[in-house]
Amino acid sequence: MYQRDKTGAKMKQFLSINDVPDLNGLLDKALNIKANLNGKRELGKHKSIGLIFLNPSLRTRLSSQRAALNLGMDAIVLDVNSGGWKLEFDDGVIMNGDSAEHVKEAAGVLGRYFDVLAIRSFAALEDREKDYEDAVLNAFAEYSGVPIINMESATGHPLQAFADLITITEHQKKSRPKVVLSWAPHPKALPQAVANSFVRWMKASNVDLMVTHPNGYELADTIMEGVSVEYDQNIAFDNADFIYAKNWSSYTNYGKVLSSDSSWMITQEKMNLTNNAKFLHCLPVRRNVVVEDAVLDSTSSIVLDQAENRIVSMQTVLESLLEELK
Amino acid sequence: MYQRDKTGAKMKQFLSINDVPDLNGLLDKALNIKANLNGKRELGKHKSIGLIFLNPSLRTRLSSQRAALNLGMDAIVLDVNSGGWKLEFDDGVIMNGDSAEHVKEAAGVLGRYFDVLAIRSFAALEDREKDYEDAVLNAFAEYSGVPIINMESATGHPLQAFADLITITEHQKKSRPKVVLSWAPHPKALPQAVANSFVRWMKASNVDLMVTHPNGYELADTIMEGVSVEYDQNIAFDNADFIYAKNWSSYTNYGKVLSSDSSWMITQEKMNLTNNAKFLHCLPVRRNVVVEDAVLDSTSSIVLDQAENRIVSMQTVLESLLEELK
Amino acid sequence: MYQRDKTGAKMKQFLSINDVPDLNGLLDKALNIKANLNGKRELGKHKSIGLIFLNPSLRTRLSSQRAALNLGMDAIVLDVNSGGWKLEFDDGVIMNGDSAEHVKEAAGVLGRYFDVLAIRSFAALEDREKDYEDAVLNAFAEYSGVPIINMESATGHPLQAFADLITITEHQKKSRPKVVLSWAPHPKALPQAVANSFVRWMKASNVDLMVTHPNGYELADTIMEGVSVEYDQNIAFDNADFIYAKNWSSYTNYGKVLSSDSSWMITQEKMNLTNNAKFLHCLPVRRNVVVEDAVLDSTSSIVLDQAENRIVSMQTVLESLLEELK
User: Fold this and answer.
1) Is the domain of C137 the same as that of C192?
2) How do residues B65-107 score in pLDDT, each as one tens digit?
3) Which residues contact residue B207 at a Cβ distance below 8 angstroms, ignoring those fewer than 6 apart?
4) Roughly how many angstroms between the first and final C-alpha of chain A, as a whole number?
5) Fewest C-beta atoms under 10 Å: which of A15, A29, A155, C3?
C-alpha cells in the first residue's frame, strides 16, 4: 500500500493533479475521511462553497453538495444556462453582442460571495486549441480571488480520477496492480477530460498503466508521455487487475467519432482474459454499447463504489482547502 | 376521533398506503408533529434526503424540503429534465438510443448518496398498462437500496392523501363524516394519481366515502372495490361533510378528456346541498372551471390548510423512516 | 456620517423605501452587520425564507441565500418558469386558458410554507400602466400573510439601492458627496427598476443627487420630483464624487431603446472631469458599451464592493424582519 510521504506543502486550489503537493498523503487522508464522513462537521462552519455549473450534472452536483454538507459548509448551487449567461473571456472586446458579462466581473463577484468556488465547464469539441486552454476554469482561478475546484473542465476531471484512485486502492490485491484504460464505443462525441485525468493520476500512482484504443483515438502527447499504448484490446487485457472503460472522441481529428466498432465493447469474454479484474466506469454508462450487462451485473463491477467515492474525493479536497482558509 | 392502535410494525418505505402498518398511529403521530414542527431537529442530523423530480413541482418540492429541514436533515433537490436524462428501465437493451443511463445505475448511485430518496414521476397517460406498472418508482425501490418515498407516481400520490386525511381529521365535527370525492371539469388531461390515493386512504379511514363523476370516469376496479359511486352529483352532495374536488382523465378510455361539462363545476349552490361541508382541493386549482370563486373565497374552503399539511404528512413519513434508520 | 435617528418604528415588509421607517438607523445596522456577518446565526434558527424567482437571477439569488444562511435560516429557492406556471391576477376570471393557478392560492400556500417570502418579477416593458401597478409583488403582499421582500419588481430594486447606499457610505470622503446617476448605452431594452430605486434612496440620503441622460429617457415624475436633471453628461460629471452608470429604456416612449449613442459610454476621459469619483454599476455590465475597460479596471471602480454589499443589504432587511417575527 501507499506510504505517507508528508511534504508539508499545502493545497491552494484543485484545478488538476498539479495542485496536489503530496498524492500519497491526500490518498491516506481520503481513506481516513471515508471512515468517518461526519467527523469534521465543525471545520466548514460559516464557510460557503458556490457550485457553479455551466453544463449539466447529476453525480457531481449531488456528491459535491453531500461533501460540503458533511463538512458543515453552506453549499449553494448555481445552474448557469450557458446560453442565458454568456460570458466574455477576451480582453478589450466591445460587448454589444451575446455576452452579457465579462468573466472578470462574474468571477470577481462570485469570489466575494463564497469562500471556495467549484466550476464545471465542458469542452465544446469544436476548436481543440480553444478547449485545451481551459479558458473558463483558468479565468475563474485568475479573477475570483478564492480557491477553485475543477468539477470537470474542458481538459480534465480530477475529482473523478481521484475517486477512481481511491476505489482502486480499496480493491487492489497486489502492491502494483495492472490498470488498463480501455476506449469503448459510444454513439455520441464525448470529451477527453475523464481519460486525460485518469491517465495523469494513474501515472502518478503506484500502478502499471496501459491504455488501449483504436487507431486515431490517441490522447494528447503531453498526457501520454511515458504511458504504454496497446492497440490490441485482447493483449491489453491480459493479466489486468483493473479494467477502466471510457469512451472519448478523437483528439487528433478533434471531437470526431471515428469508430463505433462494437468489437471494442467490454464483454465478459474479454474480462475472462484478465486476472479476475475489477471493472470501473465513471457513469453514466450505456449498457450493451460500452459494456455488456453480464459485466456490470457481476461482482467484478465496482462502478457504484466509484460513484460513492466521488463524495470522498470532493470532501478530501474541500477539507484540504478549508484547512488553508483557517 | 381515531384511537391509537399500536401494532408495533414499522414503516420501511412509503410507496403507497400498503406501506403504512398502522394508519391510526401514523395519524396520531402527524397531529403531534404538527403541534411542534421543530421538536425533532436532532433526529435527522447527519442524515440526507435526495428529492428527485422527473416532473415539475411547486408544493411538493417546497413542503418536502421544509419537512426535511424541520427534522435537521440535509435535503438536496435534483430536477431531472426527463428529456435530458432519459432512463432505461428494460433489461438487456442495447442502449444506443436516447437513454443515457439504466435505472440500475441511476438508482444504485443515488442510494449511495442519500439515506432516503423521494421520487416524483408522473403518468404519461399514453399506455395504461405501462403507467400502472409504476416502473420508475418501483425500479428505484428495487435498485437503490434505501427507503423510497413516493412524491406522486404514475398511479398514486399518498403524501397528498395523507395530508388530506390530516386536514379532514382536524375539521371533522362528527365521528364518521360523509366525504364526497367529486370529479370536476378541467381543460387538460390529468392523471388519476390523486383520486386513486384519496380513495384508498379514505377507505382505510373512519369515513363514509362516496365518489361522484360522469359516466366514463370510473377509476380502476381495484381502487373502487367497496366504494359507493353516485353519478348524480347533486344526490352525492346531500348531507356531505366534506367535498373533495378533483379532475382526472378517463381510466377506461385511458388518458382521454371525455367531458368538460361545466355543470360539474363545484358551485356555492351545490355546496348548499351539503351539511355545511368543507371544501378541499389539492391545488393548483382553476377558478371558475373546477370550482367557483364563491366557494374558494368562503370560510368553507380549507385548501390552504390542506396545502400546509403537506409539510406535516411528509415530516411524519420522514420521521417514521428515520426512526428505522437509527 | 449619518447620525442614528431611532424612530422606534418597525419594518413589516420590504417592498420599497416606503417600508423603511428609519433609513439612517437601517444604514447603521447594515454597517454593524457587515463587521460581523455571522454574529446572529441564532436569530433565524427554525425560520424559513422562500426565494421565489419568476425571472432569472445570479447575484440576487446567491447573495440572498448567503444572507439567509448567515442568519441561520432555512433558505429554499424556487425557480418559476413564468411560462410553466402562469399565474392569474385578475378577479372573477374563468381560468380555462394558460393560467394554472390564481395568485390568491399561490401566495396563500407559500405564506403557509415560509416565515418570509422574497419575490423577483421583472417588468414586461410592454404596457407601462400594467408594469407600474407591480401586480405580482403587491398580490403576494396582499395574499401571502407573511412579510414580502422585493428582489426586483417591475418598478423597483430596493435591495440594490440599499447596497448602493452602503457602498457609497463606505467610500465617501465628504459629509455630503455629489452623486451622479448617468444613463449609459445598452443594446437591449432594460427596465427602469434599478434607476427608480437608486433615485428614491439617494433622495432620502444625505447626498447631492444629479441625474443625467439623453432626451427621452426621463424617469417617472413621481420618482424625479425634486431631483436635478442635466442633459449634458460632461457638465453633470463636474466635481462628482460618485458616478453610478446604468442603462434603462424609455419611460415616456415606454420600453423603447431610443438611443445607442456611444458618446454616453463612461470613459476614463469623462471620469477625469470628476472629483476623482468612484465608479458604481449594479452588474452585469457590458464592457466598452456601458463603460470603458480603463474605468472598470482602475482603482476608481467599486463595483465588486457594491456586489458584495448585496449580501449586507439583504441580511440587514432580513434581520429587521426576523426581529419582528420573534
Assistant:
1) no
2) 999 999 999 999 998 875 567 889 999 999 999 899 999 999 9
3) B168, B176, B177, B178, B179, B242
4) 31
5) C3
Interface of C with B (CB under 8 A): 46, 48, 50, 74, 76, 78, 80, 84-85, 88, 91-97, 99-102, 104-106, 108-110, 112-114
User: Is residue C95 assigned to a domain?
Assistant: yes
- Confidence tier at C83 by pLDDT (50, 70, 90): low
Shortest Cα–Cα distance, B66 to chain A (Å): 17
Q: Does B62 fall in a domain?
A: yes
Same domain, B303 and B164: yes
The pLDDT value given to residue C279: 98
Distance CA A284, CA A131 (A): 23
Q: Which member of A38, A284, A307 has the closest CB to residue B112?
A: A307
Q: How far apart are CA C186 and CA C250, in angstroms?
A: 12
Pair A251, A240 in one domain: yes
- State the CATH number of the domain containing residue A178: 3.40.50.1370
Question: Could you tell me the strand order of the sheet in which C242-246 lies?
Answer: C228-230, C208-212, C178-183, C242-246, C278-280
Query: In chain B, which residues have their Cβ closer than 8 Å to the Cβ of C83?
Result: none
Residue B321 has pLDDT above 70, yes or no: yes
List residues of chain C with CB under 8 Å from any CB of chain A.
38, 41, 56, 58-59, 61-63, 65-66, 69-70, 187, 283-289, 293, 296-297, 303-304, 307-308, 311
A3, pLDDT greater than 70: no
How close does chain C come to B90, measured CA to CA in Å? Answer: 31
Among candidates B58, B284, B289 on the partner chain, residue whose Cβ is nearest the Cβ of C94 = B289
Would C266 be classed as within a structural domain? yes
**Nearest chain C residue to B187, by CA:** C96
| pLDDT exceeds 90 at position C259 | no
Q: Which of B286, B296, B311 sits opposite C113 (nearest CB)?
A: B311
Average pLDDT of span C231-251? 98
How many domains, chain A? 2
Render pLDDT for C157-214 as a digit per residue (tens, 0 to 9). Answer: 999 999 999 999 999 999 999 999 999 999 999 999 999 999 999 999 999 999 999 9
| Residue C294 sits in the same domain as residue C316 | no
Q: Are B163 and B186 in contact (CB under 8 A)?
A: no
Q: Rounded to two decimals, what is the model's pTM?
A: 0.95
C1 pLDDT higher than 50: no
CB contact under 8 A, A284 and B46: no
Chains that touch B (3 or more CB pairs under 8 A): A, C
Question: Which of B82 and C15 is assigned the larger pLDDT?
Answer: C15
Mean pLDDT, residues C4-26: 86
Confidence of residue C82 (pLDDT cuts 50, 70, 90): low
Same domain flag for B142 and B223: no
Q: Is residue B184 part of a domain?
A: yes
**Domain containing residue B130:** 17-156+310-325
Percent of chain A surpassing pLDDT 90 = 91
Q: What is the mean pLDDT of chain C?
A: 95
Which one of C38, C187, C285 has the shortest CB-CB distance to A46? C38
Q: Is the ipTM of this complex over 0.90?
A: yes
What residues of chain A have any CB closer than 8 angstroms to a CB in chain C? 46, 48, 50, 74, 76, 78, 80, 84-85, 88, 91-96, 99-102, 104-106, 108-110, 112-114
A128 in the same domain as A186:
no
**C245 and C259 assigned to the same domain:** yes
Does the distance separating the beta carbons of B91 and A293 come in below 8 Å? yes
Say if residue B97 is in the same domain as residue B175: no
